[in-house]
Amino acid sequence: MIDLHSHTTASDGELAPEALIQLAARSGVTTLAVTDHDTVGSIPACTAAAAAFGLRVVPGIEVSAFLNGREVHVLGHFVDLASAELNAFSERLKIERRTRMEQMVEKLKALGFPVTMDQVLAIAGDGAHLARPHLARVLVELNYCTSTQEAFSRFLGDGRPAAVGRFELPASEAIAFIKRSGGAATIAHPGVSRVQRHEVEELAKAGLVGIEAEHSDHPPSAREKMRGWAQELGLVCTAGSDFHGPNVAPGRHLGTASMDPAAFAQLEARRG
Q: How far is the C-alpha of 224 from the C-alpha of 176, rounded, in Å?
């Protein structure tokens, strides 16, 4: 079973690297891409833990980018952990994410919800790349919201009162950056992000090599449509559960989206 989209506590996942690998092995996953947001910090620990289970870890990253004025996510698989550009990018985004989180905390305080950075860090951990799900979990723990989904719909989602804009990296530049880092770039959950066919074609011209057709949140109709786009545009169909953990993304389970080994080999051949 090949699952190419998962997260650890290095970004907004609930499980530490070792726990993620153990759960993946129990779930029947044989190849797992660890794709934390804007960081590859958890990959060495995941790779070390995977050796005991004979599980292959694909080094990956999920980059938040912008396409035609809205946010989309670009996955990089098989990236080179020694890439100086990759590590500089990760460090820059870690600082940017911390600043953004501090601004969101202040906005919530002004709205009458006295959350603190210490509470966010208690959930995320000092080394994590801070993300909105961390703050959403604080709101749930303090009983200001009943779920992380409610936290986003009321406060943290784009355009909501506590939201703060982020660094806007063009999707074409994210693709080029991933390629320079030795990776293969794919568009994450295009159905969820409402990416259109002409936009996928635009990204393919910029170097995109795959499309995440098989995703936990894609209904069968969306998966079929994405497979058609992939065939028309010469892209590899990939699969990912986008696992974060039950308190962050209920309903997403490791191994529930899997891809054909031949397609995986095609993706690996198109790296860099």
A: 28
Q: How far is CA 134 from the centre of its chain?
A: 14
> For residue range 202-261, what is the model confidence (pLDDT) as tens digits?
999 999 999 999 998 899 999 999 999 999 999 999 999 999 998 888 888 998 888 999
**Domains located in the chain, CATH noted:** 2-89+167-269 (3.20.20.140)
Choose among 210, 200, 188: nearest CA to 269.
210
Secondary structure letter of residue 170 according to DSSP: B
Q: Please return the burial class of 146, using the count of CB atoms within 10 Å of its CB with bins 0-12, 13-18 and 19+.
A: exposed
pTM comes to 0.86
- Tell me which residue of 221, 263, 206 sits closest to 4, measured CA to CA: 263
Q: Which residues contact 23 (CB under 8 A, 6 or more apart)?
A: 15, 254
What is the rounded CA–CA span in Å between residue 147 and residue 43?
A: 29
